Amino acid sequence: MNEKIHWLQRKTTIKKLWIILYCLLAISVLVELFVDVKAYFGLDGSFGFSAWFGFGACVLMVLFAKLLGWLIKRDEQYYND
Amino acid sequence: MTNLMIPPGLLLVLAAFLLPLLPSLYRKFLLIAAPIASLILILLIPDDYSLKLPFLEYELLIIKLTPFGKLFAVIFSIMALVGNIYALNQAKLTELVSAMIYAGSGISVVLAGDLITLFIFWEIMAIASTMILWANNTSGSRKAGIRYLLVHLFGGVILMIGIISYYSETGKILFESMVGREATVSYWFILAGFLINAGAPPLSAWIADAYPEASPSGSVFLSAFTTKTAVYVLLIAFAGTKLLIFIGLYMVFYGIIYALLENDMRRILAYSIINQVGFMVTGIGIGTDLALNGVAAHAFAHIIYKALLIMSAGSVLYRTGYRKCTDLGGLFQTMPVTAVCGIIGALSISAFPLTSGFISKSMISSAAAYEHLSVIWYLLLAATAGVFLHAGIKFPWFVFFQKDSGLRPAEAPLNMRLSMYIFSFLCIGLGIYPDPLYSLLPALKTSYVPYDAAHVVTQIQLLLFSGLAFFILLPMMKRTLTISLDFDWFYRRLLPGLVNLLEPLYYIGTATIKRSIKTLYKKLQLEPDSRIKQLGYWSLSVEGMVWISLLIFGIALLTIFTYSTY
């Protein structure tokens, strides 16, 4: 490829984006100190609930998909006759 | 308003038949004008309006306006309009005609007041949508079209059995709530017939099998109407049926898991239709005032952002010819409008604050919270994270970013961009100012405020940390050149396999029948040779008749058996 690498795809930019993401994550949790989060059931009232619950749920879903994938993934040509 | 008004759905169907007769310029005009006219007609229909038509000994209610029906008819017209704009540059005439009939029938279903009218337009939808698939005229679309049609004809038969038994049980054909009725034959068959079109298990595979095989604009039309008319009829007839909560939750997670395994961007989006309809079916099962309003609002918002996502994917397909994540990547450089509109659709489906998904989906999960349905609420929350994972980030990331694929396609054509602009505007507009959508909802008994600080903060936390999980787990989500097995294996592999197995039996059977016929002739002392000489093909048709009689005998036995069990 002759053209320059787009600035969004340069290693330095990606590193900066990661830093920004970590800052946003921290801010989103810390803001909870100033906001009264109403709990309906109990567990959902714990500090940073949505953060760890969301993260955990995603990890579980990806792992489950991976496991299921071993069972049900087939070659693209599977149905072709 | 007089009683002479044209039903808005019928207007679109009539316009569809006019299309082929018109020269190109007028055709384009009609494609824009007809949905607008239909939208105006719908908005003009006074509340509690009904249009009756005598048919045989029945009185059909061609139009019986319900508040939910009006909301669905409005969004169907908007969808037809913007979909037509998107289709202008590339859709074939067959596709455009079919799409207008499809949209018009969808509108007719949600305005229908009796089961016969509903069923007629339900079936027209099945045929028109198959025609949209076939209009693409690829080997993939032809085969998928047949499978799609078979599923829907099967669903149609189930629904028809339900409607006929309903009539014989009650003597009525009115389409109204089934809740509180005894769970009879008609109850289960009607429920099953509706659920098949919603993409409920076990027959969910048809959505991801068929929709991606249509043309770029064909997929946009297909994504909007069939599953959402199913949501509407479930909403009217089965609100508060607890079983639907479980079916809905299954669909929600089925969509997420299969989308995570998928490599084809259009199939990812098709799976996420099932996921989103799952949210709606769950809401119908919860069945409170807030939940049902949430379902209707979510269907409205969903049609817009899902169409936007499929338009974005369709533009990529149109410009590159590729559908698989493994072939794509880095397209944001030369298709920035398509990328940004796709991201807006992705944020909306993820229910990001300030988008339409946020103001609609939160109604359903709040309804679960208010009813103290803790497990359901936790599962819906996990699913919201999962939506961001499989559609919100996965789709834009693999198509527009990830590794540079080296593809430098041109930006989408003007009409495609225009339709994406309109829907992007609606996604954000409704997110910031939801009142126009809320005003279409039947009066909420308690006012609902989507934006409170706690809700916004927790939702942003949820989505940001799901995003973190995505990028951390990225190595585990490397795309593979695979498909995933599903229930369609039974009719794509097992049944054809069985038929192959049974083929020798057929030949043995035919030979046996032939021999018996000959023996019969001999016993009757007839001259078989001369007879067969006279009618060269006669013996063959006799075999055919014997096979058919055997089949009829089998069906008769089955019917007697079924009825004797009552």
Descriptive labels:
heterodimer, A: 81 residues, mainly alpha, flat, B: 566 residues, 3 domains, 3 strands, globular
Describe this structure as you would to a colleague.
The complex is a heterodimer of chains A (81) and B (566). With 81 residues, chain A is mainly alpha-helical. Chain A has one domain. The mean pLDDT of chain A is 85. The two termini of chain B are 50 Å apart. About 1% of the residues of chain B have low confidence. The longest helix of chain B is centred in the last third of the chain and has 35 residues. Helices cover 72% and strands 3% of the residues of chain B. Chain B has 21 helices and three strands. Chain B is globular, with a radius of gyration of 26 Å. Chain B has three domains: 236 residues, no CATH class; 249 residues, no CATH class; 64 residues. Chain B has a two-stranded antiparallel sheet with strand order 1-2. With 566 residues, chain B is mainly α. In chain B, helix 5 runs antiparallel to helix 9 and helix 6 packs antiparallel against helix 7. Classes of the chains: A mainly alpha (81), B mainly alpha (566). The interface between A and B is large, with 47 and 50 residues. Strand 1 of chain A pairs antiparallel with strand 3 of chain B, so a sheet runs across the interface.
Ordered list of secondary-structure elements with their pairings:
The complex is a heterodimer of chains A (81) and B (566).
Chain A: H1 11-30, H2 49-72, E1 73-75
Chain B: H1 8-18, H2 24-44, E1 50-55, E2 58-64, H3 67-87, H4 93-111, H5 115-135, H6 139-170, H7 185-198, H8 205-210, H9 216-237, H10 243-261, H11 265-286, H12 289-320, H13 336-349, H14 356-370, H15 374-400, H16 414-432, H17 435-440, H18 453-472, E3 482-484, H19 489-523, H20 528-534, H21 538-564
Antiparallel strand pairs in B: 1-2
Helix pairs in contact in B: 1-2, 1-4, 2-3, 3-4, 3-9, 3-12, 3-16, 4-5, 4-9, 5-6, 5-9, 6-7, 7-9, 9-11, 9-12, 10-11, 10-15, 11-12, 11-14, 11-15, 12-13, 12-14, 12-16, 13-15, 13-16, 14-15, 14-16, 15-18, 19-21
